[in-house]
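User: I've been going back and forth on whether these two constructs are worth ordering. Before I decide, could you fold them both?

Assistant: Sure. I'll take them in the order you sent them. The first construct and its structure tokens:
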Amino acid sequence: MDTGTRTPIQYGFSLIELMVVLSIMGLFMLLVITNTTFLHRSSMYAQLEQIYSICHLARQTALATNKAQTIQFDLLTNSYTWAHRKESLPRSLRFGFIPGTKGPPGNPTMPISTPITFAGTKITFHPDGIIQSGTLYLIDEHATSMYAISNAVAQFSYLRMYRYDGTWHIL
């Protein structure tokens, strides 16, 4: 029979154990946020690529058929239509711009005032290869990321894609 004093069982965590657990949780949260941001930007870029591809196809169709092709954009529904096919932007994206940003991307001198500067919110591709000039801006739902497709007024028409992160970068 043990008559010695017993030490009470202690429950809880030491300060070191608590700091290790909090550090691991902080690292995990950082990885989740970083991956979420990466996936978000990737989906925005994929949508930009899709619009750009449809523009390229519309231009090639205009050249091949000798008939003008038009892609019509709807700012209210965040959708666009070409050849009787309607596409909608994902819910996390919309046609828009970050307030205070200057554009167009190729020569940013004036504050952007409208998300689509193509006349009539449509891009017309002519049979001679000329593309109507203007710019289309895409932003995320939080207005933190912005991309653009633009055709400047030039002798030779071509569309360019841009990314905005404080300054414009051609893609």
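The second construct, handled the same way:
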Amino acid sequence: MTEKYFAEIEGVEYQIEILSDNRIAINGEPYELNFQALRQHLSYSLLLEGKSYEINIYQDNGVWEVLLRGNQFSVQVEDESERRLRMATGQASKEEGKILLQAPMPGLVIDIQVKEGQEVDKGDVLVILESMKMQNELIAPRAGRITRIQTKMNEHVERKQILLILE
């Protein structure tokens, strides 16, 4: 029996089936993979269809934050039973409220590309964080207004430190 999950990334939904320890299907398309934890905190090695990727993943307030190739993605995941329950109760996905943008890893704030009070669109770059000699663009998971910036340029930040607040 396969496990089914539904993942939403940047407004696009994907159906993921776990077929075995090293096989998945995404929207019905099968893939071979190998996924291993690395010694670094929250870092993983992903070998997908012969291509190697290093990714950082952590969960925050029910949302998975994924850092891949210098880009951060917020991923909402639910399994079949969670989805059925949500649909039965008529709940929609959460697209409102306060979002605390946190550093996905320790690093140096290279640039803050927004100001307090600024309106932003989903996908806009908010902060550029340098970690492990890579510059990572932290993007807005949805449209909103920057209500508070809690960091400054050239500041060293810790993982999960709040950088700014989006409402």
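Notes on the second construct follow. Helices lie at 80-89. The chain has one helix and 16 strands.
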